[in-house]
Amino acid sequence: MKRHYCLIETGLVPESLVPRHGTFPSMGKDLLRQCLDHFETATVSPVSGDSFPDPEAFDGYMIMGSEFSVNDDNPWIESLMRFIQDVMHRSVPLVGICFGHQAIARALGGTVENGTWVVGATRYAWEDGSEPLTTIAYHEDQVVIAPPATTLLMNSADCPIASLRYQSAPCWTIQSHPEFTPAFARDLFELTRGEPLTDDMCDAAIASVDDLSPDLDSIHQEIRRTFQH
Q1: What architecture does CATH give domain 3-114+141-180+215-227?
Q2: Annotated active-site residue in 6, 35, 98, 171
Q3: Catalytic: 177?
Q4: Which pLDDT value is given to residue 55?
């Protein structure tokens, strides 16, 4: 039986990059293809004015990245907080990526603060001692206090709370961007050279993803575990 998953679009890929790389939801769908079989997806875009669905309308949700901060005073972000709470209350599987990671944490009692930019290929350690992995980061905000009833899964030198599993419902989140390809990351870094990235930050980030072949098997396992709950 096919499962139906909803990709929540909370940010927009710069228009000039869409023809080559697609949207954040299309990247999310490509990521799901590496994790799951026999599924269909739909996209809901609150950042573009869409209303949130009934939490039980889909078999699971993936909240994508964004150029916004979860702490912004924005009506759709407050609606997202309530939606996350409803989804968790009904134990519908939920995955959060970058902004999604932060939004879920904030909605459930954690704290997200503005910090320093973490950009480029980043090495993450698993709390259980599993083999570290490298994936692509692009964020300034991060979770600084995890919500109650969570298990810390991953950390990095610049991001102590890099991945969380929630104990009360099937929910897993990650601060980095496993959906980003190195090609998209390079183009995005270059496009944001000068604002918000300095030349030095941009050059280092681009160099870090050259010849990068992320090993995402462990991340795929977490997504699979969550959505097949």
Answers
A1: 3-Layer(aba) Sandwich (3.40)
A2: 98
A3: yes
A4: 97
